[in-house]
Write a structure and sequence with these properties.
This protein is mostly helical and 413 residues long. The chain is built from 15 helices and no strands.
Amino acid sequence: MSCPLSNVAAVDRSATVPWQRDALVIGLVGMAHATSHFTHLLLAPLFPVFMREFGLSFSQVGLLTSLFFLISGVGQALSGFLVDRVGARPVLFASIGLFMASALSAALARGYGGLLLAAVLAGLGNAPFHPVDFSILNQRVSASRLGYAFSAHGLTGNLGWALAPVFLVGIAAIDDWRLAYWAAIAVYAVVLAVLWWQRDHLHTVAVPRPPGRSRADDLAFLRLPVVWGCFGFFLLSSMTLAVVQTYATSILQAMHGIPLATAAVTVTAYMLAGAVGMLVGGFVAARTRYVDRVVAWTLAAGAALMALAATGWLGGVGSMVLLAVTGFAIGIGGPSRDLLIKRAAPPGATGRVYGAVYSGLDTGVALAPLVFGVWMDHGWYAATLAGGAATLLLAVAAALAVGRRTGEQAART
C-alpha cells in the first residue's frame, strides 16, 4: 500500500529504471554518508594527543564533541529548509568543503582555538547531511528499492564510524598526528571529486514557494504531531547509542575487570553488528507494509538484550556479546525507521521533515552525558546500561505512535 503523504511519486518506476542506475545513486549517497559519520569522530580519537600536546583537560576536549553536536543539531533542523529551496546537490558539495576546512584547521592547530574552529566547521558541514541524503534517495531511487537504499545508507554510516578511529589513530601512530588530518583532507578531496564527476545522479528538484504562500506556511509541518513523534523517537534511541559509544568500555571494565583494549572492541563490534543488521533490515523493509511494527520489535529486542547485559549474569564476555547483538537488533529496524519517517513527510517538505526529526539524534547524544554521566560518576554502572535499555523502550512507544498516526492520515486521504 503506497502512502499518499510521501512526496515521492506513488508510481513504482522500478520496472522502467535499471537497477544499476538506482545502485549508483545509492552508492554515491552511501559514500557521502560514510564521510559524514567519519567526521563525527574526526577529533575524538586523538583527544589523548591533544591533552598531552596542548595541556588540555577532559572537560576541554569534551566540549569539542558537545560543540560539534550542538551546531549540527541546530543546523540540521534549519538546513532542511535550504535543501528544499535550492536542492540537495549544492548543499552536499558545500558540506564536503566544510569537512576539508575542518580537517585543515585541526592539522594547523597551535592550541585549543584551532580545535574549537575545527569542531565548529565540522558541525556546520555535518548539519545538512540527513536532509540532503534522504532528499536525493527519495527523488532518485525507485519506490520499491527505497528499503534497500535506506539499508545501505545506515550501513555506510556505521562503517564511517568504524573507520575513523582506525584511520586517524593508525596514521598518528606511524607518524605525526597532523599527518592524519592531511590524509583526511585527501580523503575528503577524493570523495568530493567522485561526487562532482557523478553529479548528474545527485540532482534533486527544488521546491519553490507557491504564490500566496508565506514563510510562516513553511513551518506548517511543525504542527503535525507525527513529526514530533519522529523527533522524540530519534532523541530517545540516540541516548541509547550514546550510552554504548561513550560508556560501554568503562562499564565493562568496572563491572567485569575487562582490560581497556578488550572492552573497547565492544563499541566497534556494536557498530559493525549494526551495519550487518541494517543490511538485513533492507530486505525486511522492502517486504513489509508494517514498518512501524518492525521498528518496535527490533528495538524491543535490543532493549531486552541490553537489560540482560546490565544484570551481569553472563559475565564479561557474555555482556560484550549481548551488546554486540543489541547493535544487530537495532540495525535491522533502521531501514524501516527511515521509511516510517518518509511516510510522515508532507509533499514538498522532505528536507524540512528529515532535518527536524534527525536533529533529535544530535539532541539525544548531547543530552545523554548530562543524565548518564552523573550516574557514572556515582558508580551506577549497571543502572546506566539499564537506563539505555529504558530509553530504547520509550523509543518503541514513539515508533508505534508514529505508525498509528501515519496510518490514520493515509486512511483519511
